[in-house]
Amino acid sequence: VSKDRFRLKFLSECETMRILVTGGAGFLGSSVVESLVQNGHEVIVIDNCWRGTKENLRAVLDNITFIEGDACVTATYEMITNPSSVDLVYHFAAINGTKWFHEEPRMVMDVNLNSTLRSLEFAEENNCRYVFTSSPEAYGESEIMPLGGHEASVFPVAHEHQRHAYGASKYLGELAVQHAIRQGLDARIVRPFNGYGPRLLGDEYGQVVAMMLQRAVLQGEIIVHGDGSQTRSLTYIDDLVRGIETAGMVEGLGGMSLNLGSEEECSMLDLAQRIAELVENETGQAVRIRHEQGHPGDSKRRLPNLEQTKKHLNWQAHVTLEDGLGHTLRSML
Questions:
Q1: How is residue 181 annotated by DSSP?
Q2: Phi and psi of 167, rounded to 5°?
Q3: DSSP state of 125
Q4: How confident is the model at residue 98 (pLDDT cuts 50, 70, 90)?
Q5: Cis amide bond preceding 83, omega within 30
Q6: Minimal CA–CA distance to 194: which of 174, 179, 208, 180?
Q7: Which residues contact 151 (CB under 8 A, 6 or more apart)?
Q8: Phi and psi at residue 231, to the nearest 5°
Q9: Which residues contact 262 (CB under 8 A, 6 or more apart)?
Q10: Which pLDDT score is estimated for 161?
Q11: Cα separation of 27 and 93, whole Å?
């Protein structure tokens, strides 16, 4: 057995690994970093703090190596001391948030693609296991449910709208990862479905659960796009962290794509009504629901295919929507 192959085989048996996390100060990345540190691993974080913040890492900042830099640039990775000793890369660095897809699609593509290519190059050069955080948006407007099996991605003609700057960049990221796999890299792909929880951005450039909660608390109203019949599989952060971390630790998953999401579909109108009731009960403040026109290209349904995930990770979401929303709201009050 070659030294490199022995090193990869040994990864999951090590008590401590040296792990690089790109985008490690963001919502999802910071939560994974916390878990990795708690489990005894040595962690290096790369983040330019454009959307993520060091505050998200305050509980572990003294126990990690933090590199404030751009994950799209090779020079940032050159700041890592002894890079050949890095065992595993979790790649989260990306721009998310629907408003960005429409306002700055080229920036979204630039960051999402180049951060993936640079982190992949680092993993290949240093023979690291690699976990790419993709998205169900990589399937575009596919109507096959549950989503995320072997069906084709469906994207409309480019002139109709720009939303798919994000989904198409994740699709191309998956292509790059699959090419690296064919070249011998031990890489895996995870697709979190609508993660939510504490630290999720709730401003106009954020994601739906935090946006609804924040607006309900601060302005006493929730905005629902369209009639609110579109559904999502809302997955609490603790469940996602467990799945993503495990996807990097288990042997024999090279080349696999694993969906991580709740199997409970929730319409956006139902979500708004649940949040309104929750905020009213917690704060005594009345909350009204207002309907507005949504963004073009908004998916009608999103439900994950978990066949491979259950088989290879023994994973499924455990936190109920009621509990998850409660935890998230209380972290904001």
A1: H
A2: -60, -40
A3: H
A4: confident
A5: no
A6: 208
A7: 139, 142, 144
A8: -115, 155
A9: 193, 233, 234, 235, 236, 239, 304, 317, 321
A10: 74
A11: 11
Measured in degrees and rounded to the nearest 5, phi and psi for residue 247 equal: -60, -25
- In one letter, which amino acid is 289? I
How far is residue 5's CA from residue 8's CA, in Å, rounded to a whole number?
5
CA distances from 35 to 45, 123, 137, 183, 238 (A): 13, 21, 26, 31, 10
- Is 25 in contact with 60 (CB distance < 8 Å)? no
Report the amino acid identity of residue 304: P
CA distance 44 to 88: 10
Distances (CA, A) of 153 to 2, 55, 147, 258, 269: 38, 37, 10, 16, 27
Which tokens sit at 302?
A: 């999103």
State both tokens at 308: 């491979």
Distance CA 53, CA 200 (A): 12
Residue 296: strand, helix, or coil: coil
Q: Terminus-to-terminus CA distance in the chain, angstroms? A: 55
Question: pTM surpassing 0.90?
Answer: yes
Output the CA–CA distances (angstroms, integers) from residue 269 to 231, 276, 327, in the order listed: 9, 10, 20
Q: Which residues contact 286 (CB under 8 A, 6 or more apart)?
A: 220, 280
Distance CA 199, CA 332 (A): 9
Radius of gyration of the chain (CA): 19
DSSP 325: H
Which two structure tokens, joined as six digits, stand for 186?
């031990």
Residue from 102, 109, 294, 313 nearest 191 by CA: 313
pLDDT digits (tens, 9 = 90+) for 4-49: 433 443 444 457 899 999 999 999 999 999 999 999 999 999 999 9
The conformational region for residue 252 under phi > 0 = left, psi -120 to 50 = alpha, else beta, is left
The C-alpha angle 92, 97, 99, rounded to 5 degrees, equals 150
Residues facing residue 42 across a β-bridge: 18
